[in-house]
Amino acid sequence: MQSNYFQQLTQQLQQQGTGTPQLILDLVHYQHNLDYVQSHLPEQLKPRLVVKSLANLQLLKLVSETLNTQRFMVFHLPHLTEVINEFEQADILLGKPMPIHAVERLYQNPLYHNMQIQWLIDDMGRLQQYLQLAQWFNICLQVNIEIDVGLHRGGVQNLQQFLALLKLIQQHSATFSPSQIERIDGL
């Protein structure tokens, strides 16, 4: 049955396709899978939707409603602003450190000053840049420290770096609100 299902999809795509990449989504199966996940989620677990792989707002709304969450992990500034504008109660975690110019561009709009965004910090240089930006805009930033778990994709690599970041965060408690430690091991 599965191979017949995919053969039919392939035929339909070849007949109706444009020769360009397209997303095909079987909404019946998709909704069934969402319902299954929702019915098996422990009540205390609050899922976070990864916008990197669900960058379509209609799909995000569907998943958000089905799983009763407005928690998102975002990787790019355009997705960040879309989620902020679409979901009033959005709790956003950055999935990678954001260049300071992108953060500055976001906060040039005062509407974003009080959004619940958790910024990912991977080194002292970035934390110092975020400090200057937060002081300039007179805002408090939620920050997460990224630790390198051995894959060398970024993050602090030793206890001294980690403690130095924590010290600076503590020294500027009016500017920084520590959120969590984040390990990036499978993205």
From TrEMBL:
Residues 26-173 form the Alanine racemase N-terminal domain. SUPFAM superfamilies: PLP-binding barrel. InterPro entries: Ala_racemase_N, D-amino_acid_metab_enzyme, PLP-binding_barrel. Keywords: Isomerase. One of its GO terms (molecular function) is alanine racemase activity. One of its GO terms (biological process) is D-serine catabolic process. Pfam families: Ala_racemase_N. The keyword Glycosyltransferase does not apply. Its EC number is 5.1.1.1. The keyword Cytoplasm does not apply. Gene3D superfamilies: Alanine racemase. This is Alanine racemase. PANTHER family: D-SERINE DEHYDRATASE (PTHR28004:SF2), ZGC:162816-RELATED (PTHR28004).
